[in-house]
């Protein structure tokens, strides 16, 4: 999960709460291998949002997943993750100057390279 957010979201613990909520939701979904879960958040250095009002903030989440899961399974997991994000950011969503989004992208395995001993370490615990 890659989370990009505007500077105004740094004001309190919102991004930390969001990252924890997303991580927990991904684990609970049961379709993501633990060794493959990564939740990363990055603040946009510059952001002009909607009508360019300084109070406008955003959180844009992009979940990249390996191939092999049906659209229905990914949709159910996405619903669960998005609801966790909405709950974590409920105070911001109650204000008229906030945008939250989630997009799931499927990775083409022929165009993806990985080298991680984390998978081997975690598989030994099973």
Report on this model:
- The protein is of the alpha/beta class and 126 residues long.
- Helix content is 36%, strand content 22%.
- It has 4 helices and 4 strands.
- It has helices at 14-29, 71-88, 90-93, 117-123; strands at 2-5, 40-43, 57-66, 98-107.
- Strands 2-1-3-4 form a 4-stranded mixed beta sheet, with helices on one face.
- Helix 1 (14-29) links the parallel strand 1 and strand 2.
- Helix 1 runs antiparallel to helix 2.
- It is elongated, with a radius of gyration of 16 Å.
- The two termini are 24 Å apart.
- 17% of the residues are buried.
- The mean pLDDT is 93.
Numbering strands along the chain, what is their spatial order in the largest sheet?
Answer: 2-1-3-4
Mean pLDDT metric: 93
Main pleated-sheet profile: 4 strands, mixed
Percentage of residues in strands: 15-25%
Taking pLDDT < 50 over at least 5 consecutive residues as the criterion, the unreliable ranges are none
| Overall body shape | elongated
**Count of discrete alpha- or pi-helical segments spanning 4 or more residues:** 4
Q: How far is the first residue's CA from the last residue's CA?
A: 24 Å
Could you tell me the radius of gyration in angstroms? 16 Å
Provide the succession of SSEs: EHEEHHEH
SSE-based structural type: alpha/beta
Q: How many β-strand stretches? A: 4
Task: State the helical fraction.
Answer: 25-40%
